[in-house]
Every structure is written in structure tokens, then in C-alpha cells.
Amino acid sequence: MIKTDQYAENIKQHAVRFTDTTDLEPIIQAASSAKYVLLGEASHGTSKFYTTRAEITKKLIEEHGFSFVAVEGDWPACFEVNRYIKRHTSDYSNAREALYSFHRWPAWMWANKEVTHLIDWLHAFNLKQNKQVGFYGMDVYSLWESMEAVVQYLEKINSPDIDKATKAIECFEPFHRQPEQYGISAAFYGENCMSEVIDLLQTIQQKRKTYENDPEASLNLQVNALVAKNAEAYYHAMVTNGNESWNIRDRHMVEALHYIGRYYGSESKGVIWEHNTHIGDARATDMAQEGMVNVGQLTRETYGADQVYAIGFGTHRGSVIAAGKWGEAMEVMPVPKAMPGSWEDMVHQAGDFNKYMMFTPENRELFQETIGHRAIGVVYHPEMEQFGNYVPSRLSERYDAFIHIDETSALSPYIF
Q: What keywords tag this UniProt record (predicted)?
């Protein structure tokens, strides 16, 4: 039985109250020596998670030399933002126009006022720098957009490999941009495009040096081809094995991160924005029992725990942007008070104010009990929260630090 009062007392002893980003300096300093800083969120629609992550990101870039931001977003849309902040295009006159590149649902995750402020800052920061800071998407969903980007680039440079790219995209055309249709066909009827996209990716990898007259274009080409390969596998697995599709997605994100890191060089450092369920080590949750991995686990295994600093986020109550069903219109929803006995509830009991905890060898064992930790996705039903929105977690193993914002409010998305 969890002794709630004792846990609240432990939290009270080891948590630090904060009112603005300057109070988070100890976390920023601890994170700054890592190669990758993973910034989480307990939902995809909470304003304060975005603004707090943005302020931490600015500090890491400006004061500690971090090279890029990589987010849980589509590569093609994020690459348009990257082009804007580096002044590689005149297509956009401001950050808001660049963020309209996010068309696929849920567009509100990135096309919002909070992200606009960060993109404005990155654009202004890059004006003063020789070495430009980048902005990239790590996700796997943009199969058709990525395939089209590959074809367009190969056509532009008159590449002899255009036939392979055309053959690959033509293979997907009968499915009319419906990933569910493709997944069913691939899983149950053996009609898939795996050989075409693997052949294309291998060709691009073998010939990548031929594209290095424009290194950013080469990176764009390689990752779009990678997205096509892994998206094909993701949609195939999605129909028959949900856990494996999750693993394909998170492995893809770590693979995309490798490409970005290689482009910026061995000394580069990156800031990663993703949901807690991706950046918090899966081995400290019930995901491990289901054979699932995530970005937090994989980056620690790949680069070493000392080179990854994961910061989780949580809230006790407030409001959030989400939808009732996948693909439906977004709406502002209430976030009820945290479930009694959850991490969020106990952090709140330790004081109804914003606070953070840093987990160290001296205090880590105090927070290793498996306790429910709230997770809100793009689809949310507040009235049913206790039945599926709490992930059993050992908080001090899942994260290196945890930021609690006691009362939160919904994101400010643009209306399309």
C-alpha cells in the first residue's frame, strides 16, 4: 500500500518552488552537459508545457550551444519551419505563415501561438549566428508527403534514381492517402510496397555523397526516404500489432535523430520535444511488460544515460486542447483534479504551487514506487480519465527531473 502522506512529505523535502524560468536554472545547468535534452509534456494541448519548454530551449541554445530542436512532428512540415528560421526560403514572411505548413491532424500541436513565439525567437537568433540552429520533425506519419518530397527533389536535380522514387510512390497510389487501407491490404492481402521503399532508401544512402553540394537538401532527402520506409512498416503493423507499431514509430524517431545529429557533427547537441510517453524511459513503466520501447529508453541505450537528460512534465488540474475522436475537431476540455494517489495528486499535496524535482543518486530511491502518472493524448475523455490516462511509473527512473505546473490552461491554436 502506498503511504500517500509519506510520499507527499518526501516530495516536499526534495521539490523546489518556481515562479518563472529563472528559477529553473539548476535543471538547465544539469541538463546542459548532456548531448540530448528530452523535454516532455503530459498532454499535446497545454499552454504552459509549451511555454516552459520554449524558455528552457532558448537557454540551452543561447547559453550552452545546443544545435537544433527536434519535435514530435512531421518531417516535411517541420522542414518548412527550418527553412524559414534559416532564411533558406522567401515563401513565408513570418513564423505564423511557416506554421501553416502543418496541415495533417492534429495541426494544433504545432500551429499555435505558443510555438510561434519560439519560431520568432529562433529566426531572430539565427540572424546573429554563422552556425544556424535547426528545427526538425522526428515523426513517422507523413508517408505521402515525404514520398512526394523525394520525387520533387530528384526531379529537380535530374537524378537517374527518379524512376525508383516514382515506382515507390505509384505503389501507394491505389490507397488514396488512406493509411488504414494500406495497412489492411499489406497485413491481410500481402499487397505492400516494402521492397520499393527499401530499394529507394538503400539507393539514396549509397549515393548520398552525390547530393552533398547542398547538405541540407541531402539531409531532407535521406530522412524523407527513411520516413517512407518506416511509415510503410508502421501502417502495416498498425493493423495487426499495436505494440509493434509503437516500437516502429519510436525507433524511427531515434533513427531520424541520428541523421540530424550526424548532419550537425559529432559535437552537436539537441533539444527534443515529445510527449512524456515517448521521452520518459519505458523501462520505468508498464510499457516494458508489453514489450514496448520508447525514445527515452532507446536514446539512453544508444548514447549513454549520462548523455541524455529527460525532463517530465505534469499538472494537477486545468484545461487542454484535444478531440473526442481521432480526426475530429479540437476543443477545449477540462482537466479534472488528479486522481487520488497519483504522482500528480501527491505532488499537489506537497504544496499547491509550481515546483520541480531533480532526481539524484541521493534521493532517487525515495521516488521508485510504481504509481499512476497522468498522460493525455490528442484524443481525450475527461470523464473516463481514471480508466486509461494513468501510466504506472517509477518517476525517478523514468526521468532525470520532473516539472509540475499545478494549474494549467489550454493551448492557443490557429483555426484552419
A: Methyltransferase, Transferase
For the chain, the farthest-separated pair of C-alpha atoms sits apart, in whole angstroms, at 68
**Integer Cα distance of 201 and 151 in angstroms:** 12
Within this chain, do residues 255 and 280 fall inside the same structural domain, yes or no?
Answer: no
Asked if 368 contacts 392 with a C-beta cutoff of 8 angstroms, the reply is: no
Q: Per residue of the chain (416 residues), what is the pLDDT tens digit?
A: 566 778 889 999 999 999 998 999 999 999 999 999 999 999 999 999 999 999 999 999 999 999 999 999 999 999 999 999 999 999 999 999 999 999 889 999 999 999 999 999 999 999 998 899 999 999 999 988 998 888 888 888 888 888 888 888 888 787 767 777 776 676 665 667 778 888 888 888 776 666 666 779 889 999 999 998 998 888 888 777 778 999 999 999 999 999 999 999 999 999 999 999 999 999 999 999 999 999 999 999 999 999 999 999 999 999 999 999 999 999 999 999 999 999 999 999 999 999 999 999 999 999 999 999 999 999 999 999 988 899 999 999 999 999 999 999 999 999 75
Q: Are the C-beta atoms of 314 and 407 separated by less than 8 Å?
A: no
pTM: 0.94
- Strands (DSSP E) along 73-122, which ranges? none
**AA identity, residue 12:** K
Q: Which three cell numbers stand for residue 354?
A: 509550481
In terms of domains, do 379 and 337 share one? yes
Q: Are 292 and 402 found together in one domain?
A: yes
Which of 331, 312, 329 lies closest to 410, judged by CA? Answer: 331
Q: Are 232 and 143 contacting, i.e. CB atoms less than 8 angstroms apart?
A: yes
Q: Map residue 67 onto helix, strand or coil.
A: coil
All cell numbers assigned to 313:
512534465
Residue 152's CB is within 10 A of a number of other CB atoms, namely 13
Q: What is the CATH number of the domain that holds 53?
A: 3.40.1660.10
Residues 58 and 43: their CA atoms lie apart, in Å, by 21
One-letter amino acid at 341 equals: G
As given in the structure block, the three cell numbers for residue 28 are: 538547465
Specify whether 244 is located in the same domain as 324: no
| Gyration radius (Cα) of the chain, Å | 21
Instruction: Assess if residue 125 is contained within a domain.
Output: no
Q: Are residues 256 and 294 in the same domain?
A: no
CA distance 186 to 274: 29
Distance CA(278)–CA(275), nearest Å, equals 5
